[in-house]
Amino acid sequence: QVHLVESGGGLVQAGGSLRLSCAASGSDFSINTMGWYRQAPGKQRDFIAVITSEGRANYADSMKGRFTISRDNAKNTVYLQMNSLKPEDTAVYYCNAEVREGSSVFLYTSWGQGTQVTVSS
Known about the structure:
- This protein is an all-beta fold.
- It has no helices and eleven strands.
- The protein has strands at 3-7, 10-13, 18-25, 29-39, 45-51, 57-59, 67-72, 77-82, 91-101, 108-111, 115-120.
């Protein structure tokens, strides 16, 4: 089983920036896409961005411009750079990854435990 661990969350003032990281660990695995989602209290989990192993990124329309996803395949790590943060960006941020273990033809999705981002006004 591959585990994902997010880090980099915290409290920031409006207009500030944060960089989230999500590292995958395990044995004999490869990762297809990696993505970021967020969930505010009382709301559904929303898609932010996804990036392929080749580095192609796609964003939710509402996230374009302030958020940038990137990836280091050698470290099995995905990043989310967040700029010009607003109070409405306050949420728990989750990463996920499409994982293939060994020579399996099957992919499964692994999720991290989430990291809290709080933006004060």
